[in-house]
């Protein structure tokens, strides 16, 4: 999936995959590796590629933008579940705690 999205983004900019690699600043052999293995690059390189093409990492990995669901109800429930311990946290910190809780839940399944 990543390789196909990467190639499509390259075409949309009038670049070859190897040409984009040179402009972004990574080894052209990486492109061949993604094509052959089907694996995406590591996070640091994903971030560089996403920045170059002005897309999200989600888009690079799935070919579609992910929309953030309304988490206000979940954040209120999180505060209740933690007995008010998150009261002094920012909304971003509360979202991070919620994402971590969801990660732990999925990991256990």
Question: Could you describe the 3D structure shown?
Answer:
There is one protein chain. This protein is mainly alpha-helical and 109 residues long. It contains seven helices and no strands. The longest helix is centred in the C-terminal third of the chain and has 18 residues, at 91-108. It is elongated. The model has no long low-confidence stretch (mean pLDDT 80).
Sheet of most strands:
none
Number of E-type strands: 0
Question: Percent helix among the residues?
Answer: 55-70%
Q: How confident overall, as mean pLDDT? A: 80
State the shape: elongated
**Gyration radius from CA atoms, angstroms:** 19 Å
Strand residues, percent:
under 5%
Give the topology string: H per helix, E per strand: HHHHHHH
Our count of helices gives 7
Low-confidence stretches: none
Distance between the termini: 25 Å
- Oligomeric composition of the shown chains: single chain
Q: Please state the structural category.
A: mainly alpha
């Amino acid at each position: 999936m990543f390789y196909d999205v990467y190639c499509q983004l390259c075409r949309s900019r009038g670049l070859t995959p190897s040409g984009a690699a040179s402009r972004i600043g990574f080894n052209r052999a990486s492109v061949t590796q993604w094509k052959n293995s089907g694996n995406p690059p590591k996070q640091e390189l994903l971030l560089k590629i996403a920045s170059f093409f002005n897309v999200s990492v989600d888009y690079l990995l799935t070919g579609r933008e992910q929309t953030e669901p309304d988490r206000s109800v979940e954040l209120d429930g999180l505060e209740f579940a933690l007995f008010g311990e998150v009261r002094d946290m920012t909304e971003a910190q509360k979202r991070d705690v919620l994402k971590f809780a969801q990660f732990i839940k999925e990991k256990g399944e």
